[in-house]
Design brief:
12% strand; alpha/beta; Rossmann fold; 8 helices; five-stranded parallel beta sheet
Length: 218
């Protein structure tokens, strides 16, 4: 009798194995990447996005980055996805991160390769000095190949917040580790206003900038 497929497995539609997922190297490796990515469970599978007319070219550019994500990461490139709320910025960033996981799972072992970071939540987490896992978390922020920085610039920052974010991004960019930024800010002037000159220079000037102009789809 054919084994019932685990619908939570990322490859269940094409799986040919007869034994359990726990015995499947592909499932175990991918699950490790997901469990350590910071992605909420409901976001761990890609969704279909339909391009509105005004975003057709932007969607094509994002698809090209997704299709060539290994070269993007190996070259230490950065991407800034800006635009109004609810028009697919975060969904695209997650699709690209998931594609990277799909490319690197084989033989990965126990290495954190990519992370999803909701920036307002991160800023609170960095002040939790009694958290025994904070040091390891910050090390992963430094070493992960690709990080999605979601909603950067969408909340106010204290001097401490600012210094921590600058330090982490400086380290990543000096070591040519890739970043994807999403934000409701969609002009350089807005990023300077909300992020300051130093942070804006790293987030906007050192990234390929793609702006989505479609309406809120939520």
């Amino acid at each position: 009798m054919e084994r019932e497929r685990n619908s939570e497995c990322w490859y269940h539609k094409v799986c040919q194995m007869d034994n359990s997922c726990d015995a499947c190297i592909r499932y175990v490796e991918m699950k490790y990447l997901m469990d350590n990515s910071g992605l909420p469970k409901v976001k761990q599978h890609p969704i279909r996005l339909n391009a509105p007319n005004e975003d057709y070219d932007a969607f094509c550019d994002l698809q090209d980055i997704k299709d060539n994500i290994l070269e993007f990461v190996q070259s230490g490139k950065n991407l800034y996805i800006g635009g109004t709320v609810g028009n697919g910025k975060t969904s695209w960033a997650i699709k690209i991160l998931l594609k990277y996981f799909d490319e690197v799972w084989a033989g990965n072992g126990f290495r954190v390769r990519g992370m999803f970071v909701h920036v307002p939540t991160l800023l609170a987490k960095l002040k939790d000095f009694e958290n025994p896992l904070l040091k390891e978390y910050k090390e992963n922020l430094s070493k992960a190949d690709l990080i999605v920085w979601d909603e950067i610039g969408d909340t106010g920052m204290s001097n401490y917040d600012y210094s921590q974010l600058i330090m982490i991004l400086n380290d990543r960019m000096l070591n040519e580790r890739s970043n994807i930024f999403t934000s409701n800010l969609y002009t350089k002037a807005d990023t300077v206003k909300h992020l300051g000159e130093r942070l804006s220079s790293r987030v906007w000037n050192m990234s390929e900038v793609i702006i989505l102009r479609g309406k809120d789809k939520r």
